[in-house]
Amino acid sequence: MPPPPRNPDHRSPKRPRFPLSPPVPEEEEEEEDDEFSDVSANDVEDRSDESADDEEDDVEVVAVVTVAEAQSRGYLGSSSSIPSSPVYKHCPVCRMPIGDIRCRAMEMVIESSAVPCRYAMYGCKETTLYGDQAHEKVCLYTRCQCPVTNCNYAGGYKEVEAHARLLHSWDVEDLTPFVFNTPQIFSINLARTSRAVFQEEKEGDMIVVQTFKRTNAGLCVTVNHIAPLSLGLPNLSCSIAKLNSFTTLRLGVMVKRIQNVREQEEPSEDFLFIPDYMLIDNHLKMQICVGSEFKYVHI
User: Where is this region: Disordered (predicted)?
Assistant: First the structure.
């Protein structure tokens, strides 16, 4: 005969595989939790301080290492000088994004770093502190542009003089020869151009006489010398005059040195003002005499 079915209510309880630990009072559990939380909080603070110190050390090391590379790229110092390309918005060493947060360590490194002049490739041997542009403004090797209309040649001022003598001297309308301390009469066709360019026959100095029509009335005339602002070059002065049949309007002025001719606003100083009644037609007849230093300032 088969055994009778067992009643599920009379099953024997299963024995645990491992002995149960005795119950711990609630007060002791809270004390242990507090001790553990205090220890873990202190450990986290210590680790965060150590990591912050390590990050500062890493920043200083990276700042020193990457100065030369960043200078070669041309954007060392601030994020405003970084190109718009996404590639240049990241550090070349750690690839982290570059933002607007100032780095004092990097600024100190930059201020004490010496860089060559931007015209070093043209022969300048000077070195300056990063961000100091005082030398570049008066550098002898600065680039000058040919003042002849529609000519885009640029180079050193002596190179520009040689270029003008070689390519523009055949056309008197573009380039007129002159001699120092010798008065010379010339005319400007205002319907064709707003300037007259002269070149000294022996020295090669280039002088530009430029006209500006005023918004209300009259005409302004300036005289400039294509040359760098270097202190080693001699200063020039000139006498510029507007000639009419029975009237002469004359001005003695120092010749300002410029590196390129601009066609923007009218001048605010050192110009000859010609009123409308002396402007008969578009042909402006004038006389110029250029000399050294202050010879023609008080004429």
Answer: 1-59
Domain segments of the chain as ranges: 37-112, 168-292
What's this model's pTM, rounded to 2 decimal places? Answer: 0.63
Options 2.30.42.10, 2.60.210.10, 3.30.360.10, 3.40.50.1000; CATH of 168-292: 2.60.210.10
Please, are residues 264 and 213 in contact by the beta-carbon 8 Å criterion? no
